[in-house]
Design a protein that fits this description.
The complex is a heterodimer. Chain A is α+β, with helices and mostly antiparallel strands. Chain A contains ten helices and 18 strands. The chains are: A alpha+beta, B alpha/beta.
Chain lengths: 445, 113
C-alpha cells in the first residue's frame, strides 16, 4: 500500500518537475522572443536590419550562422541579401529559382523544417554551398509571414560544436519569425516611403523646370505684344491681355502702316496654353508681314488665312482686324468669326455691323469681305475676346454681353481696358479664370 | 457631356452630343468619333445637337475636325436640332457658312439622300 502511494507521489513529483521544466522552457522562449522584438526595432535600414536578424537568430539558436532569404514578389524567386558567419560577403547576391532547395520547399509549403543531415535530404541544393565553401551539415528553416504574405525564409545553419538541432529549437525559430516579419515589414514600409519621397523630389524638380520654362515663354509672349497704350493722329488706344495660364491664345496687335494709317487687331486662338501660344506667335508675325500699304484689309486676311490654313489642320483663330485712317477716322474692317464689337456713343451701346467671315486657319482660299465706317469723334470702340462674356462666377453663370454693356456705359471716359477686366474679375470672385481675356479700346479725339 | 452614337438608315450615323462641348469635354468627342465612326469607315454623320447647351471654340475645333475628315472621305456631315444660343455661336463664329444646319432629324436625313 505504502509502496503504491510512494510510487504515485514519485510520479506526481516527476510530472510536476516536467511541467515546471516546460513552463521554464516556455518562459525562456518568451524572453528570447521579447528580447528579439526589442532588438529588431532598433533599425529600419536594410543592411543593418538583415545583419541584426541573422546575428540574433544565430545566437538564440546556438548555431554557426544563419541567412535570411527574401522573396522577390515580381519573379517569385528567393534571393539572399547578406549572410552572417565567415562568408557573409559571398552569399550576398544569390538568387534561387522558386521552389529550389530546402528554402524553396519551405517557400512553397509554408512550413518550418528541421533537416538533421542535409547530405541525406532530397530537397538539398548545394548551389549556395558551392559558392560559399561553407559546409552545411544540418539546418533549421522557417517561413516568414506577414498578414498571410510570405516575405521570405530564414535558415539557421549548423548547430555549434558539431551538435544537432532539436525539435524545440525549430519551435523557437517559428516563434521568432513573428518579430522578424514585423521588423521586415517596417523596413519595407520605410523603403517604400523613402522611394516615394525620392520620386516626389524628382517630380517636383521636373515640374519646377517646366514652370520656369513656362515663365520664360510667358515673358516671350508678352514681349510680342506692342504695349498697352498707343496714340496716332487723332486716335488714342489702350489694350490689355490676361492669359488664363502662363501663356495663352488671345492676342492683340497695333502698328503704324504709314503716316496716316494704323492696323489694329484682336483675336482668339481656339485653344489655350502652349499650343495656342505657339499658334498665336506665328499669327502675330503673319499679320505684320501681310500688312502692306495700299492693301485692302480683306486681302490681308485672305493672305494671312492662306499662310496658316491646311486641309488637315484644325487650329484656328477668330480675328477682328481694321485699318484706320487716324486723320479722317475712316475705318475699314474685317470680321473673321470674332465676337461682336461694341460702339459706345451718347450713353448708348451698339454692336458694330459686320460681314461675318470664317475664323482664320479653318480652310485655305476662303474669301473675306471688308466693311467701312466713318468713326465719329465721340465714339469709343471696344473689341474684346469671349473670355470676357463667358467668364463664370462660382454659381456657374456667365458674365454675359448685357452686363458688359451696362458696365461700359457706367465707366468714365476715356474707357480703360483694365477697368473692364477688373469688373470681370470682381464678378468671377474666387472662381478660377478658364479662358484668356483680351480687350482693346480706342476712340478718335 | 454625354455622347450617344447610333446607326440610322442608309449607313448614316447619328451622334447625339448632350451638355457642354468645351476644352474639357472635347477630347472625349474626338475619341468617340475616331473609334466609333472613322475607324469603322463611317463618314456620313448626322449630329443631333438638341440637348447641346453650350459649345466653346475648342468644341468648334472638334466639329471642324469631323467636317474635314468626312469631306476628305467624300462623306457628308449635317447638324440638326441646335438650340438658339448654340446656333448663335455657329453664326457669330462664321462656322454656320460651312455646315449644313437643319432643324429636325427628318430634314437631316433628307439632305443626306
Amino acid at each position: 500500500m505504502w509502496a503504491i502511494v510512494c510510487g504515485l507521489l514519485l510520479l506526481l513529483c516527476i510530472g510536476a518537475c516536467f511541467l515546471l521544466w516546460r513552463l521554464r522552457r516556455k518562459l525562456t522562449m518568451n524572453e528570447t522572443i521579447l528580447a528579439m522584438s526589442l532588438q529588431l526595432s532598433s533599425t529600419v535600414e536594410r543592411r543593418q536590419l538583415l545583419a541584426l536578424i541573422m546575428e540574433k537568430t544565430t545566437a538564440a539558436l546556438g548555431a554557426e550562422g544563419s541567412s535570411i532569404i527574401l522573396m522577390d514578389h515580381e519573379s517569385g524567386d528567393l534571393y539572399f541579401e547578406v549572410a552572417t558567419g565567415n562568408s557573409a560577403e559571398e552569399v550576398k547576391k544569390i538568387r534561387l529559382p522558386a521552389g529550389e532547395g530546402i528554402a524553396g520547399w519551405v517557400q512553397i509549403n509554408g512550413k518550418a523544417l528541421l533537416v538533421p543531415d542535409v547530405s541525406k535530404d532530397f530537397r538539398w541544393s548545394n548551389k549556395v554551398q558551392n559558392k560559399t565553401e561553407v559546409v552545411t551539415r544540418n539546418m533549421l528553416c522557417a517561413p516568414i509571414f506577414s498578414n498571410g504574405t510570405l516575405l521570405g525564409v530564414i535558415q539557421v545553419i549548423n548547430k555549434k560544436n558539431n551538435g544537432r538541432f532539436k525539435a524545440l529549437e525549430l519551435e523557437l525559430l517559428e516563434q521568432l519569425s513573428a518579430p522578424i516579419a514585423m521588423s521586415l515589414e517596417n523596413m519595407m514600409l520605410y523603403e517604400a516611403l523613402r522611394h516615394s519621397m525620392e520620386s516626389l523630389q524628382q517630380t517636383t524638380a521636373a515640374k519646377e523646370k517646366i514652370l520656369s520654362e513656362m515663365r520664360l515663354a510667358s515673358q516671350i509672349q508678352a514681349s510680342l505684344l506692342p504695349g498697352e497704350q498707343f496714340q496716332h493722329g487723332r486716335l488714342s488706344l489702350n489694350a490689355k491681355l490676361l492669359p488664363a495660364r502662363e501663356v495663352g491664345g488671345d492676342f492683340y496687335h497695333f502698328f503704324e502702316l504709314d503716316d496716316e494709317h494704323i492696323v489694329i487687331c484682336l483675336g482668339d486662338v481656339s485653344d489655350k496654353g502652349m499650343p495656342a501660344a505657339l499658334f498665336m506667335s506665328s499669327l502675330m508675325i503673319w499679320i505684320r508681314a501681310k500688312a502692306q500699304k495700299g492693301l485692302n484689309v480683306s486681302d490681308m486676311v485672305y493672305a494671312i488665312n492662306n499662310e496658316i490654313s491646311s486641309d488637315d489642320s484644325t487650329m484656328f483663330a477668330t480675328l477682328f482686324i481694321a485699318i484706320i485712317n487716324t486723320r479722317t477716322g475712316l475705318m475699314q474692317y474685317c470680321d473673321a468669326g470674332h465676337c461682336p464689337v461694341l460702339l459706345l456713343q451718347n450713353g448708348q451701346a451698339a454692336t458694330l455691323d459686320v460681314h461675318k467671315g470664317l475664323p482664320i486657319g479653318v480652310m485655305p482660299h476662303m474669301t473675306y469681305e471688308a466693311l467701312e465706317m466713318q468713326l465719329p469723334a465721340n465714339t469709343t470702340v471696344v473689341i474684346y475676346s469671349d473670355g470676357i462674356t463667358e467668364a463664370e462666377c462660382a454659381l456657374g453663370q456667365m458674365y454675359g454681353a448685357e452686363r458688359l454693356e451696362c458696365h461700359l456705359l457706367a465707366l468714365k471716359e476715356p474707357v480703360q481696358a483694365s477697368a473692364i477686366i477688373e469688373d470681370v474679375q470682381r464678378y468671377a470672385g474666387s472662381f478660377p479664370q478658364s479662358d484668356d481675356i483680351a480687350v482693346l479700346v480706342f476712340s478718335m479725339n | 457631356m454625354d455622347i450617344q452614337v447610333m446607326s440610322l438608315e442608309k449607313d448614316i450615323t447619328e451622334i447625339q452630343v448632350n451638355g457642354r462641348l468645351d476644352g474639357i469635354t472635347m477630347p472625349e468627342l474626338e475619341q468617340r468619333l475616331e473609334v466609333d465612326c472613322f475607324r469603322e469607315q463611317k463618314f456620313r454623320l448626322a449630329f443631333n445637337l438638341e440637348k447641346l447647351d453650350y459649345i466653346s471654340s475648342a468644341g468648334l475645333r472638334v466639329m471642324l475636325l469631323a467636317l474635314k475628315k468626312t469631306t476628305a472621305m467624300k462623306g457628308k456631315l449635317v447638324l440638326f436640332g441646335l438650340n438658339s444660343s448654340v446656333h448663335e455661336i455657329f453664326k457669330l463664329s462664321g462656322f454656320s457658312s460651312i455646315y449644313t444646319i437643319v432643324s429636325t432629324r427628318e430634314e437631316a436625313l433628307a439632305t443626306m439622300q
